[in-house]
Design a protein that fits this description.
single chain; two-stranded antiparallel sheet; 11 strands; alpha/beta; 9 helices; 257 residues; 9-stranded mixed beta sheet
Length: 257
Amino acid sequence: MKNISVAIVTYNNEKTIARTIESLLLYWPQFAERKLYVIDNGSKDKTLEIISLYHDRLTVISSQHGNVGFGSAHNLVLPYLDTDYHIIMNPDVTILDNRSIEKLTQYLDGHREVGMVVPQIQDEAGTLQYLCRRNPTILDLAIRFLPGNVMPKRQAYHAMKDSDYARPFPVEFASGCFMMIRTSLFRSLHGFDEKFFLYAEDADLTRRVNMIMRTDYVPTAKVCHLWERASYRSLKMMRIHLKSLHTYFKKWGYRLK
């Protein structure tokens, strides 16, 4: 029997967290022992009240310093982890069927050179979200922040649309909305780089994984992601996003294109 842990970081997610937890409970594979952790970043709404309804099926970890950021909050679970595989999951993601976690587990079991996997990610209408990307460049990120459909071919290249999303392929930059990683690898990397408060920490983690093993996309596993894209609607979130990108490029080098 496999041991699989799941970590979900919450911050005022009363609208989505119950559905996320319910999907995990409903579609958890019978062959795997589940260790579910919810790390709360100081929610002010009813998130903690909702989570408390599942007290016998999960462990709640509360940040002692309010909202410490996505990566730092996920790292609070590191001392508890003794599993084979670890899932990093957003509070706006739901599992879509009872085979998805199994498929990811089987893929890691069968590919010893792969350290992390990501599923096919859909929106609520079932439309594919192209969230497998190539490593960020200044050009790619500038295009994303510009209004309108600027340089569509370049956007498609960055989103790896030249790859076949119906088949597995290696990923340079995987979305942190849902990842399954070998727990031993996650621990050896000391989790996320805490210099990132929010955004780009997933690009950084994927890059560090790929220096040791490989990250693969597994389309037979499927999840639904609401994808609010808050940094495109909020000046505050955009500033946080830009700061994280500066941190990323300072660490990995400023590549124009």
